[in-house]
Structures are given as structure tokens and as C-alpha cells.
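Lab notebook, bench 4. The sequencing result for the construct came back, and we need a structural model before the next group meeting so we can plan mutations. Quick request posted to the team channel:

Model the 3D structure of this chain.
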Amino acid sequence: MHDTNAKLAKLQSLRKLSDLWDRSLGVPGTSFKVGLESLVGLLPVGGDFIGILMSVYIVFQAIQFKLPKTVLAKMIFNIVIDGAVGSIPILGDIFDTTWKANTKNVNLLEAHVREPVKSRQKDEWFINIVLVVLVLILIGIIALFGFGIWLAVRFFGGNQ
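Done. Here's the predicted structure in C-alpha cell form:
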């Protein structure tokens, strides 16, 4: 992504998306904000999948900014922590209200745009690894969701 106006427009769009997903809804009587991820995350397994999908989308968009691999690694770490802890019933839902991986990742992207750090090499191989890791995470969540459905059918509907 070379055009400065296009970069700024993309960055602004990603900020709006992260705000919507992480901190768009005020908790009455407090200054604390949660986002749609906190609500969607209440859906068993599928809600966490949707949240991670949104986080992965933001990272895919951020890759266009030619981020150094250290920044991409931090972004992936944020998603992995969000997905791993966020998938724990009840505790994960509470965790999701405070971790805000999307906001953290857009903050990292904005910091890079303000003060770009050049990487020592192209890092094309690292970006490919990032993509593979993100796809594997999504496949793992889909498998977990499928396993949960299979267990529910066996437990509730199979032996009558």
C-alpha cells in the first residue's frame, strides 16, 4: 500500500472496526466500555470463532502496511491469547471485556504508521508463516466447534 491517503483511509476504517468490536457500548453507571465481541462471545464456541475471524481480518489488512515481523508477531500473540483464554466458558467472557485484542492490534498498526520501522529484509516468508498460523487457528476453532456439536448430539440425542 503506497498511497498515503489510501493508508490513512484504511487505518481509519480499521480503527472504527476495532472500536465497534471492542469498545462501542458503555456499561451504565461506569466509564467502562465493551464492544460487540463481548456480546457475540457469549454464544458458545461460535461467538469466539466470529471474534477471532474479525481479529484475523484486521491482521490481514494490517499486512498491507508492510509491518515488520515483530509487529505482526505481537498482533498474532494478541489474537492467540484472545482466542485461547476467550474460549473458556464464563472466565473467557469476562477476559474478553478487558483484553481488547483488536484495539491493541490497531494501536500497534497506528504506532508503525506514525514512526515506521524498516525491517532488515523483505519478511515475505514470515508473512506466509503468519497466514498459515492464522488459518490453522481458524481450522482448530472450527474443529472444536464441530466436536462440541458432535458431543452434544451424542449426549442429548443419541441413546434413546
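The longest strand covers residues 25-26.
Will bring this to the meeting.
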